[in-house]
């Protein structure tokens, strides 16, 4: 391994097992640290994941201890069985494979970004604040079984702050600038862990970046409208989290950020991942554009630097934009997931340890995810999701004026965000879920206080008079307590924010009166009075346009076609479309 050259740590050394907190030989024999039975009984989620992130409720006398006793008996009975997960140590290896997946998904995010430093395991994990914005979104209430969904934001930084990073990413002239979050994906795991949805937002999407305060120096960055990748420059990943929450209305539990060098190291540890192109591709041109990826038509196993090239390729895939790059990243992630689920990779404990070291050396995480134990538990949650229920999409988008950037597509984008807020799978297989009955209003219309604010101050500029128009409409509907907030803000989708469960019935009734979709109604601790923010999806008229709630093929139970969905199992033979300008 090369020297760090950044923190003055000198030559990186392989730690002794005892230094990692494991008994000598224990990891090699069983593939698990000594306390792992609590994490891996029955191949299920560890106790921490259940408590913190909405796993199954406590099952009392038949719970984890009983399962461990049963598992121990089964292990004895299965002595001598084949080593495919059914024999001695097999469960441990299976959980470790899924820990590898919990870490490995970051390979994709790291296609955008910088070089973090080599340390070891817990000591190596860099931790930062989860949310640097004004906050306000409340964690979803548990369902009848005590389960809650889990949302993890995966980020890739493009910082060029080391020689290794410059070597991999180029652009030495950018060495001193703050990094950008060039890859952003939200992983949504359903409350019952039956499905997983992954949504990417293109880096050039123009959004409202909320006010953020950098905890390191106390500097406050004012609210602004800019490409979403610039949010990382406003104090760190916590501002990108705040931006996603403001844009989507989705509560985010954790973030994980990785960089160029981290991707290469983890891709080497994972081993080759098969990818496919529909013709020869060489991502390079005379103007210096391209990642350098060069592949012949067909399927190839990529790892290390070549995996990074695949994940970074924009010039050469589809229309040479971030949209094609996001699709290539989804294909890579799906392929890696299939391999890990099939057990075709990472069955060797030493290889697993290498990945754990590589991953933790490359990660920045929020403080709530800042230990290897918690990453193991995350791996357990991911293990439970069947491959056929994993869907990856790109946020529905459209070009802004001049086609220099993109914006969320009215209707389709909000419909997609609304599905995730409601914990509805994007694959169309949640049609049997019944919506919870709406509570009755508790306050007479003429006594309900509601503030209306113009949220159209986005990429296209503000639509004048929106707050006044909607306030007057509310008064005409009997909501005589409605008033306006004259301050402009930027909100992609119209949102009706209320504080506390007692106001939900009133908020739903008001939304129905205006024709707003139920997904626009959100509980928020940042408001003291009910607040209606009129978004970019409602720039004219006083009744919410019906098309905005379900445009372009969107439905209440399936992602719109404009999201370009990929299924981890069904689309296993998919190949990237190569742009004819970049073939050979």
TrEMBL record:
Q: List each copy of the Cell envelope-related transcriptional attenuator domain by range.
A: 181-341
Keywords in alphabetical order:
Membrane, Transmembrane, Transmembrane helix
Membrane-spanning residues: 98-118
Tell me where in this chain the LytR/CpsA/Psr regulator C-terminal domain is found: 448-538
Where is region (Disordered) located?
1-92, 426-446, 543-572
The record ties this protein, via Gene3D superfamilies, to:
LCP protein
The record, for InterPro entries, names:
LytR/CpsA/Psr_C, LytR/CpsA/Psr_CW_biosynth, LytR_CpsA_psr
What residue spans carry the Basic and acidic residues bias annotation? Answer: 72-86, 426-436
Q: Identify the Pfam families for this entry.
A: LytR_C, LytR_cpsA_psr
Q: Which family does it belong to?
A: Belongs to the LytR/CpsA/Psr (LCP) family.
In Swiss-Prot or TrEMBL terms, this protein is called Transcriptional attenuator, LytR family
**What are the top taxonomic ranks of the organism?**
Bacteria, Bacillati, Actinomycetota, Actinomycetes, Kitasatosporales
């Amino acid at each position: 391994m090369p020297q760090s050259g950044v923190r003055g740590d000198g030559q990186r050394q392989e730690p002794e097992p005892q230094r990692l907190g494991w008994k000598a030989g224990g990891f090699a024999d069983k593939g698990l640290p000594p306390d792992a039975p609590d994490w891996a009984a029955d191949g299920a989620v560890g106790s921490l994941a259940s408590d913190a992130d909405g796993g199954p409720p406590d099952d009392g006398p038949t719970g984890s201890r009983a399962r461990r006793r049963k598992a121990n008996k089964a292990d004895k009975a299965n002595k001598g069985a084949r080593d495919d997960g059914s024999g001695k140590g097999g469960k441990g290896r299976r959980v470790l494979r899924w820990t590898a997946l919990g870490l490995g998904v970051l390979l994709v995010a790291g296609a955008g970004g910088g070089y973090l430093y080599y340390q070891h395991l817990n000591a190596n994990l860099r931790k930062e604040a989860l949310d640097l914005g004004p906050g306000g979104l409340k964690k979803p209430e548990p369902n009848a079984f005590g389960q809650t969904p889990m949302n993890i934001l995966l980020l890739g930084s493009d910082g060029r702050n080391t020689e290794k990073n410059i070597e991999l990413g180029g652009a030495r002239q950018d060495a001193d600038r703050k990094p950008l979050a060039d890859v952003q994906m939200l992983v949504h795991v359903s409350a019952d862990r039956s499905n997983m949805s992954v949504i990417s937002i293109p880096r050039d999407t123009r959004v409202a970046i909320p006010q953020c305060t950098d905890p390191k120096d106390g500097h406050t960055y004012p609210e602004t409208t800019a490409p979403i990748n610039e949010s990382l420059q406003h104090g760190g990943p916590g501002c990108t989290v705040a931006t996603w929450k403001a844009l989507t209305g989705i509560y985010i539990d954790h973030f994980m950020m990785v960089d160029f060098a981290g991707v290469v190291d983890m891709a080497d540890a994972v081993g080759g991942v098969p990818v496919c192109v529909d013709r020869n591709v060489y991502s390079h041109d005379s103007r210096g554009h391209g990642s350098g990826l060069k592949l012949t038509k067909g399927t190839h196993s990529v790892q290390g630097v070549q995996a990074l090239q695949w994940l970074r390729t924009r010039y050469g895939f589809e229309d040479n934009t971030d949209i094609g790059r996001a699709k290539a990243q989804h294909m890579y992630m799906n392929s890696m997931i299939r391999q890990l689920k099939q057990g075709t990779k990472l069955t060797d404990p030493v290889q697993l340890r290498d990945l754990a070291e590589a991953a933790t050396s490359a990660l920045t995480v929020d403080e709530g995810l800042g230990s290897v134990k918690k990453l193991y538990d995350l791996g357990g949650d991911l293990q439970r999701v069947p491959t056929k229920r994993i869907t990856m999409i790109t946020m529905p988008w459209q070009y802004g004026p001049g086609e220099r950037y993109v914006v969320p597509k009215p209707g389709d984008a909000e419909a997609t965000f609304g599905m995730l807020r409601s914990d509805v799978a994007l694959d169309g297989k949640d049609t049997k879920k019944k919506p919870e009955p709406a509570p009755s209003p508790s306050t007479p219309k003429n006594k309900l206080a509601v503030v209306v604010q113009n949220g159209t101050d986005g990429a296209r500029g503000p639509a004048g008079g929106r707050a006044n128009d909607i306030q007057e409409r509310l008064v005409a509907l009997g909501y005589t307590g409605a008033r306006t907030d004259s301050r402009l803000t930027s909100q992609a989708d119209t949102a009706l924010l209320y504080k506390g469960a007692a106001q939900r019935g009133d908020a739903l009734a008001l939304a129905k009166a205006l024709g707003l979709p139920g997904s626009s109604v959100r509980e928020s601790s940042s408001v003291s009075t009910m607040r209606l923010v009129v978004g970019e999806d409602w720039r004219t008229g006083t009744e919410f346009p019906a098309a905005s709630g379900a445009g372009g093929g969107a439905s209440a139970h399936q992602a719109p076609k404009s999201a370009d969905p990929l299924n981890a199992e069904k689309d296993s033979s998919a190949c990237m479309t190569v742009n004819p300008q970049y073939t050979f």
